[in-house]
Write a structure and sequence with these properties.
The structure holds two protein chains of two kinds. Chain A is α+β, with helices and mostly antiparallel strands. Chain A is built from 28 helices and 20 strands. The longest helix of chain A is centred in the middle third of the chain and has 32 residues, at 267-298. Chain A is globular, with a radius of gyration of 34 Å. Classes of the chains: A alpha+beta, B alpha+beta. Chain A binds chain B through residues 475, 477-480, 482, 484-487, 489, 496, 498, 541-543, 608, and chain B through 19-20, 23, 25, 27, 41, 43, 45-50, 52-53, 55-56, 99, 101, 175, 177, 179, 195-197, 199-202.
């Protein structure tokens, strides 16, 4: 029975995979892709028909722009030849030398797609059914047949080209470093210094390393011509450079006109031009190399059928959710970081050590927009997070929440003892590779000085911030008035309203001895004013009044004196729905914000004029409630979700998003 | 030195970050013989809550917030400079950290003594847009003249600011008051207003207009003989 179940699951999975292979282009994505973005055209066209999309502002703009560039009379987005009800992909591949950004899109009508190029007078080659278009430097390539199109943009990596062995092999002179006005700069041909150019013409002339052939063949004439008019000493020096240069392949030669111009303009400008030309030449070499790799990468792209694809990656296939409109999959956060952030920046520090694959999914639903994200941790990291997340939010906080009044909240629960114990390990993981001795010393000292247990009793690690809106406070200020008689100045005091946030913060505590001592000290020093069972922070320059108290194992800090009084005297009337209770109790991190509730509460003074205020209120009223929450860690996977309800009158989330764009245009 | 100008401008912003903001008041009392007194005031009182919270910080938006001590020191430098200036006497300063008002007053022997001084003091008080002025008083034909030239530098520096920082200048005002012993017969600046006694003239304008060059402070005031 157990086996039967396994076979059934395998069969379903295999059929599912075959179906994916047959219907979409994922099997064309190489297995080593670092990032894959999936856009489900069929889901989107179900939510909004192409006809409806064409009538939106964005639809009209896209059609207009593409029709203009293709110089064609396209009327709808369907006219570009794409199969809009299929799946589109973006993926990125990269290694230490190059990064490929690719878009893979399904085609419905190849003739219409051909027309995009023909209309724009961009010539492409056709070999059988495969068409290829190369950009001027061949680092951008479009490859298509009757079923699909691949757009590729390649970027060669500077860190690779600047490696001495690579630089030497490709004949790249060292990059110009204008600040390096050193003796070394004078003795080598590698570094140029523009400051030096102005004062020491002789040695500087040697700096720009120009291809021998280029100079001889293309600028010699100009040099001779120039000599007649300006018999300056720099000419022999320029010859000197030629001797020191390496011969370069013909294909990398720079533009002859640029050199001719360089010699007919003032001396320092000529040198600058030479530097610029040398830079252009370097770029050409790099682009040519990148183009060669790109050509190799796309060679036989459509024909290859038995290549390992991303569908062989279980983590990728697991991340696919047919219901998600957009999915971003990252193969490995740590690897991605190391591939794209040069080692010279990180200096061996491994910030994302322990972070594995990740994905973000966007769901456009009937009543909400949801974005779910997941990240996989290494066993060690997951163990750390499990310990940190052991603590849940103090349920006593619920006794001090008034849902009718609040506009938003943010709750966070973390085991402070576990955090203090694990923090040294995390630091060691990140910095250990480079600063092993220092990190060991620092973390030992950290553990020695802190009594984790004692600290965790004072601040347990969970807290809830409640945003109750904005309140206005009268504030006096001094200004001047001038009498009509002789404009004599008189200082007068006026009053104006200032808008301040109204909030309540709750933090769990167990051991209040230290805090009580601090309060007693504050009272003695007149920094704290004792009220009826609560305190007021007497900071004269504080922009807002702050009150606090300790009750029920909770430290309360807030801006509302009445509220604090009620809390301190056990008179607070709480009101919280099961929905919010559940959200706060089940997550280590939970946040909520109701833009609607904020509408109408922003004072006119803050926006400047009534029109602006009306617009702001309209926008706030149109936004749904926003929720953010983390899920309990599952195995090694940590996940969370951000969602926003959409207004009831909207048919679905996609139409709602387009309606917001359309509204902002009005 | 544009860089230096920018630093001054930035320091002003650290004192006064969001909207509403500040007043600059320049008062000159001029006697018939060309001597007189000057009172320069920068008033941030309308934004004192925000200034107070900013002063609690070390830096905001990348700009260093000057401490009370730094402000006092700068004011002391202004006083020292004035005391050593030719024709200047009776120098007084006042800094009110309760309301964030700073003022400096002094007496001069001749109005030409203040030409460079006002520029220097306004710079120290971190007000840059209005420091391109010169003052003359002709005792023979009783004509007081303020020549003002707009500097493009002010616009350039202003344009470099972040939008939220630009808000600082939206409601900032500049007021100049000149008082004379004799009645004003004629004046050239249409923005100015003469008092009932006709012995004082006031010009009140937004600082933004001075930054973008739309407002001109030049005024030729002819007094009765």
């Amino acid at each position: 029975m157990k086996h039967l179940y396994k076979y059934a699951v395998t069969a379903v999975f295999a059929i599912g995979t075959l179906a994916v292979n047959a219907q979409d282009l994922a099997h064309k994505i190489p297995s080593d892709a670092l990032i894959v973005v999936t856009l489900k055209g069929d889901n989107l066209t179900q939510l909004m028909s192409v006809k409806e999309f064409n009538n939106t502002f964005a639809g009209q703009e896209i059609t207009k722009k593409l029709a203009e560039s293709a110089k064609s009379n396209f009327k709808t987005v369907e006219d570009f030849g794409f199969n809009l009800s299929s799946t589109f992909y973006y993926y990125n591949r990269g290694n230490d030398s190059v990064s490929y950004n690719c878009v893979l899109a399904p085609l419905k009508n190849v003739n219409q797609f051909d027309q995009l190029f023909k209309g724009a007078e961009k010539s492409f080659t056709q070999n059988g059914k495969v068409r290829t278009f190369y950009s001027r430097d061949s680092t951008e390539v479009v490859l298509w047949n009757e079923e699909m199109v691949l757009f590729t943009k390649s970027d060669g990596k500077e860190s690779y080209f600047s490696r001495p062995d690579v630089s030497k092999r490709l004949g790249l002179p060292a990059p110009f470093v204008p600040a390096a006005a050193t003796d070394t700069a004078l003795t080598t041909t590698a570094v140029a210094d523009s400051t030096l150019v102005m004062t020491e013409p002789e040695p500087v002339i040697q700096e720009p390393v120009l291809p021998r052939k280029t100079i001889k063949r293309k600028s010699q004439k100009a040099v001779i011509k120039n000599r007649k008019r300006h018999p300056v000493k720099r000419k022999p020096a320029k010859k000197k450079i030629i001797k020191t240069e390496e011969l370069q392949p013909e294909e990398y030669m720079t533009d002859s006109t640029a050199y001719a111009t360089a010699d007919s303009i003032p001396y320092h400008e000529a040198v600058d031009t030479a530097l610029a030309n040398s830079y252009i030449r370097n770029e050409k070499i790099k682009k040519a190399e990148t183009a060669r790799w790109t050509k190799n990468m796309i060679s036989g792209y459509f024909e290859k059928s038995n290549q390992p694809s991303i569908l062989n990656n279980k983590d990728f296939t697991k991340s696919i959710d047919q219901k998600a409109e957009v999915t971003v999959w990252i193969s490995n956060a740590d690897k991605l970081m190391n591939t794209y952030v040069p080692g010279s920046y990180l200096k061996g520090i491994n910030i994302l050590n322990g972070y594995g694959s990740a994905n973000i999914k966007l769901y456009l639903e009937k009543s909400a927009i949801r974005m779910r994200s997941e990240i996989t941790f290494s066993n060690e990291m997951a163990a750390v997070f499990r310990k940190l997340n052991k603590r849940k939010l103090n349920r006593k906080f619920f006794n001090y929440i008034n849902e009718d009044k609040l506009i938003g909240y943010m709750g966070y629960a973390m085991d402070s003892k576990a955090y203090l114990e694990e923090y040294p390990k995390l630091m060691s993981q990140m910095y250990g590779a480079v600063y092993k001795d220092e990190v060991t010393l620092a973390t030992d000292l950290f553990s020695l000085l802190l009594d984790e247990e004692a600290v965790s009793k004072v601040i347990k690690g969970d807290g809830l911030f409640i945003f109750n809106g904005l309140s206005q406070k009268d504030n006096t200020y001094q200004t001047y008035e001038y009498n009509e008689q002789n404009f004599e100045t008189k200082a007068v005091t006026k009053t104006k309203k200032e808008t301040l946030p109204d909030f309540l913060l709750m933090i769990s505590t167990e051991d209040t001895r230290l805090i009580n001592k601090l309060i007693a000290y504050g009272v003695k020093k007149n920094a704290v004013k004792e009220q009826q069972n609560y305190y007021e922070l007497a900071v004269s320059k504080s922009p807002m009044a702050l009150y606090f108290t300790i009750r029920d194992g909770i430290i309360f800090l807030g801006t509302n004196a009445d509220e604090m009084k009620q809390i301190a005297n056990h008179q607070y009337q709480a009101s919280i729905s099961g929905k919010h209770k559940k959200m706060l109790a089940s997550s280590n991190f939970a946040a909520y914000f109701s833009a609607k509730k904020l509408a109408g509460k922003i004072p006119a003074e803050e926006t400047g004029n009534s029109d602006k205020l009306a617009k702001t209120n309209k926008l706030l009223s149109s936004l749904g409630d926003i929720y953010i929450k983390s899920d309990p860690i599952n195995g090694n996977v940590f996940s969370g979700e951000v969602s926003m309800d959409i207004p009831a009158q909207q048919q679905n989330a996609l139409k709602y998003l387009f309606s917001i764009i359309d509204d902002t245009r009005k | 030195m544009p860089k230096k100008h920018f630093r001054y401008l930035v320091l002003l912003l650290t004192l006064c970050f969001f909207s509403s903001c500040f007043q600059v008041i320049e008062e000159i009392n001029l006697a018939d013989n060309g001597a007189g007194t000057v009172n320069l005031t920068v008033n941030l009182s309308a934004s004192k809550t925000r200034v107070a919270s900013i002063m609690l910080l070390d830096s905001i938006n990348g700009y260093k917030v000057p401490s009370k001590q730094t402000i006092q020191k700068e004011m002391d430098e202004v006083v020292a400079y004035l005391k050593n200036s030719h024709g200047i006497s009776n120098v007084k300063k006042k800094v009110d950290f309760e309301n964030y008002i700073a003022s400096i007053s002094f007496a001069f022997e001749n109005v030409s003594n203040i030409n460079n001084i006002n520029q220097h003091v306004l710079k120290k008080l971190k007000v840059n847009a209005i420091n391109n002025s010169s003052y003359t008083y002709n005792t023979v034909n009783h004509t007081f003249q303020r020549n003002y030239t707009h500097t493009k530098e002010a616009v350039t520096q202003y344009n470099k600011l972040k939008p939220e920082v630009k808000n600082v200048f939206k409601e900032a005002t500049y007021t100049s008051i000149y008082r004379f012993e004799k009645p004003i017969m004629n004046y050239t600046n249409p923005l100015a207003k003469v008092s009932k006694t006709k012995k004082a003239i006031l010009l009140n304008t937004g600082i933004l207009g001075l930054i973008n060059g739309k407002t001109n402070l030049t005024n030729k005031i002819i007094l009765s003989p």
